Amino acid sequence: MITKEQVEHIGWLARVNIDEEDAFEFASELSTVLDYFGQLDEVETSGVKPTYHVADVMNVFREDKPTDSLEQAAILANAEDIQEGYIKTPKII
Amino acid sequence: MLEGLSDLKNKIGSSSAEDVVASYLERIEKSDINAFTCIAEDAIDQARKVDSLDIEGPLAGVPIAIKDNISTKGLSTTCSSAILDGYVPPYDAHVIERLRKAGAVIIGKSNMDEFGMGTSTETSTYGPTLNPWDAERVAGGSSGGSAAAVAAGQVPVSLGSDTGGSVRCPAAFCGTVGLKPTYGAVSRYGLVSYANSLEQIGPLANRVEDVAALMDVIGTYDNRDSTCVKHNAGYTDALQDDVEGLKIGVPAEYFGEGIDDNVQKLVWEAIGKFEDMGAEYTKVSMPNTPYALAAYYIIAMSEASSNLARFDGTRYGNRSEGENWHMMASKTRQEKFGAEVKRRILLGTYALSAGYHDKYYLKALKVRTLVKQDFERAFEDVDVLMAPTMPTPAFKIGEKMDDPLSLYLSDVNTVPINLAGVPSISVPCGFSEGLPVGLQVIGNYFDEATILKAAHSFEKNTNHHTKLAPGVV
Questions:
Q1: Contact call for B90 and A71, based on CB within 8 A
Q2: Which stretches make up the Amidase domain (chain B) (predicted)?
Q3: Would you call B142 a catalytic residue per the annotation?
Q4: How many C-beta atoms surround the C-beta of residue B160 within 10 A?
Q5: Which residues of A touch B187 (CB under 8 A)?
Q6: Does the beta-carbon distance from B353 to A49 stay under 8 Å?
Q7: How many domains does chain A have?
Q8: Which of A82, B134, B349, B450 is most open to solvent, judged by the fewest CB atoms within 10 Å of its CB?
């Protein structure tokens, strides 16, 4: 069972603000799903390696040659607030 | 039956790409199934360019719908989410570059579950796509718009993406063909990530040969996706009407509790048809299948919680007010993400958080290994596996929206394929009370050739794919 306080804490970690009313609903829904996930406890996995990726590729290299990248203006075009070539946000700290 | 690529080629040759694209645009305009999130204003211009420059690519003048999570330069890409309202990508995805080069006309973006999170296209901020066979029912998801547009004759072909069944489910529900390629066969460059270790872009069409033709265009190596694998293509070359001696495995676990009787019957009839055509089948066991769904959702949600961190109101999308960055981001995400997206981000964050990582995420990755081994063992003895794509035909709009878990359970036969990374195609295999049912043909790694050959042979010897949804001409 997951509590309303836990939901609010996870919400903060994930930067999703959650109203008190929604926190109650999420707590109940998330608990149901987590109960279902609990069935994995019955699978014997000692000695089994985790699979992060099915494609058996690692450390894909390319030649160290500069190529064209996107224009700065094209990227900034989608930002809400820009100033002198930078994206502007409210203060972080 | 609806026109395929070879019909269109003749039609464009005798009239023009402009006429053909205009007639499809007219069908889209007249329809109210809500298959599109936006229509490309330059669709006719793209077609005129094909006509005037005499472009001879394999898809010259062919209109195509693109799922709204695939980046299209200059054309809105929202993932059917309010958080990306107004976002216009400054670049094309790899598959879009390839399509443009082949002469295709990007006609518009198709509706989907928000960020691909759903099995019914009901979580879209634009509302659900209606099933062309019954407007009270869902089109499936998450690529519901891509499948419905094809089934309704609004485009001959489309692209979707498949993280846990999102191409095959709507293909089955709408009576079209849909392919989930092997993980690594198609570049994900420009696909907005939901669960990056599971998903692939895949084509939908009314015929197997058109799905193969699209794969020939999009399935090329691209070093901008580090998980893209160099492989032998030649998808169209694989299309022979010949399944003599084909070894089919039928996994008992895919016909278990919750799989509708009519669906089971139609799939068994299809397997009987393959026998008549010279194939043979054996029953196989894939014992870890019952755990695939839980493992899939833990992995998908964990990856989603990380991938969707980028939507914070900073670089793109719109922004809510907040006294500092953290409050701005938290408010933006509260107000612009839908309930299902929040649920998955919260569950994924929980599954990755200190104290729970080993219990959920690491455990799921280990179960994934076991599921993968089930497939590897099965393919030692058989060439393909066959099973129902979906446990039931399309369900009613609203039926499962109040109970997330019941919606997740409808993915039971599609998610193991994504965990393992093998290819799988859904083809129409009959109707249950007037609603289409899909047969799933699953293949070994990078052996799309065999499942395309099997699906093509089945299509040549049956007529399910020729039936039209009501009102479609």
A1: yes
A2: 19-452
A3: yes
A4: 34
A5: none
A6: no
A7: 1
A8: A82
What is the rounded CA–CA span in Å between residue B141 and residue B411?
Answer: 10
Instruction: Please tell me whether the overall predicted TM-score, pTM, comes out greater than 0.90 for this model.
Output: yes
Active-site choice (B71, B120, B142, B158): B142
Closest CA of chain B from A76, distance in Å: 7
Chain A residues whose beta carbon lies within 8 Å of the beta carbon of residue B314: 79, 87, 89
Q: Residue B353 and residue B361: Cα distance in Å, rounded?
A: 9
Q: Which CATH number fits domain B5-249+380-466: 3.40.50.1820, 3.40.1280.10, 3.90.1300.10, 1.10.3470.10?
A: 3.90.1300.10
To the query of whether residue B67 is one of the catalytic residues in this protein, the response is: yes
Q: What is the pLDDT along chain B (473 residues), one digit of tens a residue?
A: 999 999 999 999 999 999 999 999 999 999 999 999 999 999 999 999 999 987 889 999 999 999 999 999 999 999 999 999 999 999 999 999 999 999 999 999 999 999 999 999 999 999 999 999 999 999 999 999 999 999 999 999 999 999 999 999 999 999 999 999 999 999 999 999 999 999 999 999 999 999 999 999 999 999 999 999 998 879 999 999 999 999 999 999 999 989 999 999 999 999 999 999 999 999 999 999 999 999 999 999 999 999 999 999 999 988 999 999 999 999 999 999 999 999 999 999 999 998 999 999 999 999 999 999 999 999 999 999 999 999 999 999 999 988 888 899 999 999 999 999 999 999 999 999 999 999 999 999 999 999 999 999 999 999 999 999 998 98
Residues 6+ apart with CB under 8 A from B205: B4, B5, B150, B156, B157, B158, B176, B177, B211, B214
Partner residue opposite B349 with nearest CB, options A10, A43, A50: A10
Q: Do B170 and B121 meet the contact criterion of CB atoms below 8 Å apart?
A: yes
For residue A36, give the CATH number of its domain: 1.10.20.60
**Min distance B192 CA to chain A CA atoms (Å):** 16
